[in-house]
Amino acid sequence: MENIPQAAPGVRSADSFRQEKAFVNGEWISAKSGATYQVINPSNQAVLGVVPDMNEEDTKAAIEVAYKTFQTWRNVTPKERSTILKRWFELTVQHKEELAKLITAEMGKPMADSLGEVGFGGSFIEWYAEETKRIYGDVINGSNPQRRLLVLKQPIGVAAMITPWNFPNAMITRKACAAIAAGCTVVIKPAEDTPYSALALCQLAAEAGLPPGVLNVVTSSRGNAPAVGQAMCESPLVTKMSFTGSTATGKIILRQCAGTVKKTSMELGGNAPYIVFDNADLEKAVKGTIGSKFRCSGQTCVCANRILVQENIYEDYVKKLAEVIKQELKVGDGFEPGVNLGPLINKKAVDKVNSIVDDAVAKGARVVLGGTSNEKGGNFVNPTLLADVKLDMRCGQEEIFGPVAPIFKFKTEDEAVAIANATTSGLAGYFYSRDIGQIWRVAERLDYGMVGVNEGVISCVEAPFGGFKESGLGKEGSVYGIEEYLEMKYVCMGVA
């Protein structure tokens, strides 16, 4: 594959996992129309290859396959499902280098981050291989001695999924493996920018023995994406929709799902506050900022978006953060040694980030670092540190999705909490404090589904991932994630 380092002789290469076909019913297929679209490397705009540009007709055909397969897969024992998932997990570990190279090539993140994502993604396969055997029902003691009250948990059916480009491996395994473990079948539309990672997972799943039709992937360009999504939402054969992406798109999907009253999981946009109180460990707070703000070049929904620093330590924090950014962050192609800040996904993303910085500067923000395009050009953006930021600036209102750290000043705990909660989003929030009373108060008062206390990176397979307010519905990962793909059935049994 062009622009991907080749493997040593005798070792499977990343190119061997680059599939230029969609995956339906265990077969590599083209779009019925024969249409394709190009996949672009965001680091250098080189064409990596092509994949089918599928449409509504292709999507409906994949859903029909998944629906037919569900009739048998639902009856496969949890132990059998577990065995297949474990083999799948082992294969991802065995081929972690190849999978990571695909991520770096099509998404741009540095290889170290890509390897971390493959490990994270694999952890969901392993986790749900175990959870599939722990789907329990209940027997309820009723008031009538002539009855027995049972609660059964059964797979919900065909689960449709639309996944994002920023974690093209892990966001698929977090959703799909929970569904497959529950006994559901799956139809996925991966992000148009990053289809190869999804298709590589299909290849390994097939090698692990996952039956044809359980896992299906339809690929489409940005132009066909709305029609593909609508076909998923409106199909009466689909009983569950899971989406990760923007809040605006999530609202459209919810409206389209209403006609068939689908169960939905929505992991939508964030606007994460990152609060540093004056009693915080400054070194840890700065280190946490680097991990939370600049991971994936700031392109995650749980990135620190509004950094609120108490006035007594404000200047010290800004100075220290600037020093660490200069010392530790290196912008470049993800395959280059030492690079830990890759490109943004495309020019549209670059233009948005630049416009947010320009807005802040025009309204009085102070540029401490960055603020200009990187010398490499293209989709590369310098890490930017803005001080003296005000709430009426766009960076105080919008999700940035780029390597820009805006620093706000606050006086009191009440003020910080009020600012943090003054948003329609409620995905993740963070704060640093060494006051145990304050830790309890603020953790409980923040209107967010996930809160990091003295931690900047909080996602893990064991913990539920999901937000409050307009940041979404439902939970992913953890023991709770599989519940999203189960129906609870009450059975009243007369025994007289």
Descriptive overview:
By secondary structure, this protein is an alpha/beta fold. Helices cover 37% and strands 20% of the residues. Strands 14-15-16-13-12-17-18 form a 7-stranded mixed sheet, with helices on both faces. Strand 1 (22-24) and strand 2 form a beta hairpin. It is globular, with a radius of gyration of 23 Å. The N and C termini lie far apart (69 Å). It catalyses: succinate semialdehyde + NAD(+) + H2O = succinate + NADH + 2 H(+).
The portion of residues forming beta strands comes to: 15-25%
- Note the total helix count: 14
Distance from first to last alpha carbon: 69 Å
Portion in helices: 25-40%
Structural class: alpha/beta
Radius of gyration: 23 Å
**Rounded average pLDDT:** 96
Q: Low-confidence runs (pLDDT<50, min 5 residues)?
A: none
Major pleated sheet: 7 strands, mixed
Describe the strand arrangement of the main beta sheet, using strand numbers: 14-15-16-13-12-17-18
Outline type: globular
The total beta strand count reads 20
Brief overview:
It comes from Patella caerulea (Rayed Mediterranean limpet). This protein is α/β, with parallel strands linked by helices.
Labels describing this entry:
single chain, 37% helix, six-stranded mixed β-sheet, seven-stranded mixed β-sheet, alpha/beta
Furnish the topology, listing elements before pairings:
Elements lengths: L21 E3 L2 E3 L6 E5 L6 E6 L3 H18 L4 H17 L1 H12 L3 H21 L6 E3 L6 E9 L2 E5 L7 H13 L2 E5 L5 H13 L7 E3 L7 H10 L3 E7 L2 H12 L4 E5 L4 E5 L5 H13 L9 E7 L3 H15 L18 H16 L3 E4 L14 E4 L16 E7 L2 H9 L6 E5 L3 H10 L4 E4 L18 E2 L4 H4 L4 E9 L2
Parallel strand pairs: 7-8, 7-10, 8-9, 10-11, 12-13, 12-17, 13-16, 15-16, 17-18
Antiparallel strand pairs: 1-2, 3-4, 5-6, 6-20, 11-19, 14-15
Helix pairs in contact: 1-7, 2-4, 2-5, 2-6, 3-4, 3-6, 4-5, 7-8, 9-10
